Protein: Glutamyl-tRNA(Gln) amidotransferase subunit A
Organism: Streptomyces smaragdinus
Amino acid sequence: MDIAALCDRIDRLDRDIHAFVGEADRRGRLAKEAAANAARWSGERPPLYGAAVGVKDIIRADGTKTRGGSALPAEVFDGPQAVVVDRLRAAGALVAGKTVTAEFAVLAPGKTRNPHNLAHTPGGSSSGSAAAVAAGMVPYAVGTQTVGSVIRPAAFCGVVGFKPTFGRIPVDGVIPNAASFDTLGVFARDVAGVDLLAAAVCDGWEPGAWGTPVLGVPEGPYLGHAEPASLAAYERHAGLLRDAGYDVRRVPALTDFEDMRRDLLLVNRYELVRSHADWFPRYGDLYRPETVGAIREGQRITADEYAAAQQRRAATRRRLLDVMDSAGVDVWIAPPAPGPAPRGLATTGNSVMCLPWSDTGLPALTVPAGFAEGGLPLGLQAVAGPGRDEALVAWAYGLATAVA
């Protein structure tokens, strides 16, 4: 790894894109990391040796400060390095730096811009991670998804994003948002990159041969949240997949989508309050208004309301998996967002198309799928059954080729 070239590239491109959190001596830190790697692996090298990885600024990484995209003192978040970073470094990777996040991975956006059009959002909350990969600053990045924070920015920026099954990557060392949903995920330029990263950071990764999946179109109120142009593109993608030989089945599903949406928000906000129970009373005046509003919403939710919503969520998940099983569907295909990246930086876009898959903890992946009018990227989201992460990534090679 040419550390000078890497840092020169980040310095040059990030003047406009703002994907990385500023760092006083990135070059010096990376030079030391690279030297330590070279000393550690003088012979056979691990799979990510020398690879530069951006790490979302809610994930602790030794040698860097963690601020959660906030104005709070960095020492508030001190603690052991995140397990996911342990695994990346054990595989030989270098932490290129912290990538910009929405404040605490909630709603208040960072300053990152979309590399395809600087006037548009890159998505969020893992905005810097997606943009850094899309701009070619680094080949890989790590983010988190609570509702749509990996899949949506990956689609907006035209890269591959993968959110594994809930719990497949330990979240130790990550600033929490909502414990029932928070999931670590990865970004790469192509499916092969995601495959390499997933093998390094997921528990018990076991590649295999999986055959050709049956694809499902979840017909019903969920798809009605996609913009007309995006929905038309999605139908074209489904047609391309049929032409490529896939069995694409239209299956009534997610008929309870609005109830699912309500319960996810309720659980999310209630758990956000618990995540910030220590920090918010002490530093609430430093929080941005969007985060304060979300916490205030959560404070109005009772324990009984939360428990009832969790029970309904469990029943909703069972119904969705029953539909998937009875219809013989291996992979749901769906738009990753209502449309391409919206203009402006005031929000990170709408996560509604990711919501059911995050609510149910299923593994999801998005691949680039052409461009919208105006040149912004589109993606295709693919969602498999619980624990079928290896199969989903393996199947993604063919899906990506069909819709590229």
About this structure: Strands lie at 52-56, 94-99, 140-145, 160-163, 183-188, 215-219, 248-252, 331-334, 364-371, 377-384. The radius of gyration is 20 Å.
